[in-house]
Amino acid sequence: MRQAATATDPEFTVVDSMLMRRVFYAFATLALLSVAISLGGKWFGHSIAMAGYTDDGTVRQIVIGNNIIAVPANAIRFAQARRDGIASRLDLYLRYPDMDGYSEAARDDFNHTGSAKKIIFLSFEPRMMSRDMSGRFAPIYSALIVQPGTAGPGGTTVYAFNEKSGYMNEVLVVGKRPGKDPFVARCLSGPNAGESLAPCERDIHVGDNLSLTYRFPKEFLGDWPALDAAIVAETTRLLKTGR
């Protein structure tokens, strides 16, 4: 009789019920934590794999002066710049000759894991000089180089800078363009060139009082007319000037 009374005692029923609720809540909490850890791990792992890149193709509109640059987020180099609004400078990176931004398919090219270099770095900022690099050749660079130059890739002429130029460990690469100012780029020379992903740079005037500097691998010099034309065409596509 005592055993039967104990089994039906209300006090024991209450204890058992509270215990079961606690066990249920504990298991529910563990399940939620497991889901959160799983999702967080996937997100964190994805962030590590992206290494600062994004495959987001959302077009952002960045305003510099009287210019709007409409460019996909995956072509914008720095995460904090991947937003609409006013900026003093905009840095991009594009894969050449496709002229596209980061994607899963282009991951190896952006991570520079292959033997061929394919990434071009571009920077838009307010114009500081009245002449671009081509326009500076005759009045400025021609007085700073050592004549005669040597034959370079793609029919260019490569000039060393004189000691007073301030451009030590650099050379000037010049390509003739009939009826126009020459193609002009400065490139690193010696060991510095081999260590750089984009040792050559050139600036051109674009838009409304903007300067575009683009840096590129020296291997692209062999077909500099196509390179320069692709840069100009892509800039024209991205840039909207409100005059």
Description:
- The protein has helices at 2-7, 10-50, 107-110, 191-195, 224-238, and strands at residues 59-64, 67-72, 85-86, 90-95, 119-126, 150-151, 157-160, 170-175, 183-188, 200-206, 210-216, 239-241.
- It has 243 residues and is an alpha+beta fold.
- The protein is built from five helices and twelve strands.
- Residues 1-15 and 33-50 have low confidence and may be disordered.
- It has an eight-stranded antiparallel β-sheet, with helices on one face.
* Order of the strands making up the biggest sheet: 4-5-11-10-9-8-7-6
Count of β-strands: 12
* Biggest pleated-sheet summary: 8 strands, antiparallel
Radius of gyration: 30 Å
Structural descriptors:
243 residues; alpha+beta; 8-stranded antiparallel β-sheet; 4-stranded mixed β-sheet; 5 helices; 29% helix; 26% strand; disordered N terminus
Outline of this structure?
The chain has 243 residues and is of the alpha+beta class. It is built from five helices and twelve strands. The strands form two sheets. The chain has an eight-stranded antiparallel β-sheet with strand order 4-5-11-10-9-8-7-6, with helices on one face. A four-stranded mixed β-sheet has the order 3-1-2-12.
How is the topology of this model organized?
Elements: H1 2-7, H2 10-50, E1 59-64, E2 67-72, E3 85-86, E4 90-95, H3 107-110, E5 119-126, E6 150-151, E7 157-160, E8 170-175, E9 183-188, H4 191-195, E10 200-206, E11 210-216, H5 224-238, E12 239-241
Parallel strand pairs: 1-3
Antiparallel strand pairs: 1-2, 2-12, 4-5, 5-11, 6-7, 7-8, 8-9, 9-10, 10-11
